[in-house]
Amino acid sequence: MHRHAWLVLTVLTLLLSAPYPAAAQEGTNNRDTRSAVTVHVVQDGETVTSIAARYGLGVETLRRANALGAYDIITVGQRLIIPAADRIEAGAATATVGLGGSLDQIAARYRIPVEDLARLNRIANPAGLPAGQEVAVPAATPAGGPLVRVVDSLSLWRVALAHNISPTVLALANGVEHPALIAPGRLLSLPRDVEAPDDVMAAPLASVLLHPLPLQPGRTGGLRVETREPGTLTVTFLDSDWPVVSEGTQHRALLPVDRWTDPGVYPLTLTFTGESGTSATLTQMVSIVDGGYPREVIRLTGAAAETLANPADEAGEIAYVERTMSGFSEERHFAEGPFLLPTAGVLASGFGTERAYNSDVFDRYHTGADLGGAPIGTPIYAPADGVVVDTGLLDARGYITIIDHGWGVYTGYWHQSAIFVRPGDTVTAGQQIGTIGNTGRSTAPHLHWEMRVHGVVVDPMQWVREEMP
Ligand SMILES: [Zn+2]
């Protein structure tokens, strides 16, 4: 008991002391989370009472936090501040609740009694935490057994097998949500007395992983579900059912988050029906946090300003792009691993920047990544395997190429000076498909690289940095 009291005392001291030393445990993060307020976006059928219950709050507490009178009506899409979750102080080490995860698991990982962790975080209802929720944890963690250095991508598995623990549990115990995310060279602490995570999954579901957590507007979530028998999985998120690709007991889905999605917590529902007729439903709230996109005001003159005044001129071109970059094929062309950068240019303007054209109304955003600083004629390469859907010349986008990578993933290449492929061509990662140009409405040679997943415009650079399932 003394040890527990000491841990709690340590944490409280850390919460109170400032500035906090920069040294952080791996797998925790020390960024300033003063602005981390949980916002609940009201869903169809919810009431103040049901939302308060979900977060373990009194109805009055929730009303007061949102300046709601006793007879005020809430509407679908309204954003409510969840006061109990507004609890992480600056400088605290934090852990993030994974999908299917729970406070119990975090408590086990940090070897602190779950009641203490709940009290520390002022969590009244530990079962109601959304995936992606940050929880303050003791910074001096996870106190471990012997340390082992990961030599290559296989050694985590070898170490886990040698100690008779699951690779997933070993990864979790070191604050990493998936064994594949442990880099060679890293030190692992062997969690001798950490139990396997409680079986929080409904029976036919064996494991659920959503990466990255929390999600962000304009970025793609990768979902991996393992079930105990083959069957049909339905994935519902952000008011849509998303395509699922199933191979036996493995199911994968891509969950693109629209750029204009309000930060908040949203329900993700998995419904599974097994071959033997068993079924299960898992619903968990998933946190979507601000994407941190900058803003810019763009002043247009001349012909460009005229186009701005007549948006209908570009409507046909936009409709063409939306039509050509949507669809779903079960065949996956892109290989395991991240996408390649399609050209040698530097990132001149990132995806998602909010833009106001000749006004102060930020009602548009940059729909791709601009790779510039390279001369006309610089090669453009396919970032992953795929099939060329179309090429052509458009007024605004100039010479273009569109590639279908399968599973609803499309990439587009605008403003080219030359096109080296034809519709129907199969391309492989690293194959040259054209050259950088300055065609269409472009003021300097650059490649505008655009990506759509299930028709939703997302940041292609995320696919260069991270591996999708
Ligand atoms: Zn651009």
List keywords for this structure.
single chain, 469 residues, binds zinc ion, 4-stranded antiparallel sheet, 31% strand, Membrane-bound Lytic Murein Transglycosylase D, Chain A, disordered N terminus, Immunoglobulin-like, alpha+beta, 10-stranded antiparallel sheet, globular
Structure, described:
Helices cover 18% and strands 31% of the residues. It has four domains: 2-136, LysM domain (Membrane-bound Lytic Murein Transglycosylase D, Chain A); 147-189; 205-288, Sandwich (Immunoglobulin-like), CATH 2.60.40; 295-465, Glucose Permease (Domain IIA) (Distorted Sandwich). It starts with a helix and ends with a helix. The model is unreliable at 1-36, 85-91 and 194-200 (pLDDT under 50). The longest helix is centred in the N-terminal third of the chain and has 15 residues, at 2-16. The protein is globular and about 65 Å long. It is α+β, with helices and mostly antiparallel strands and 469 residues long. Strand 11 and strand 12 form a beta hairpin. It contains ten helices and 27 strands. The chain binds zinc ion. Zinc ion is lined by residues 349, 366, 368, 370, 448.
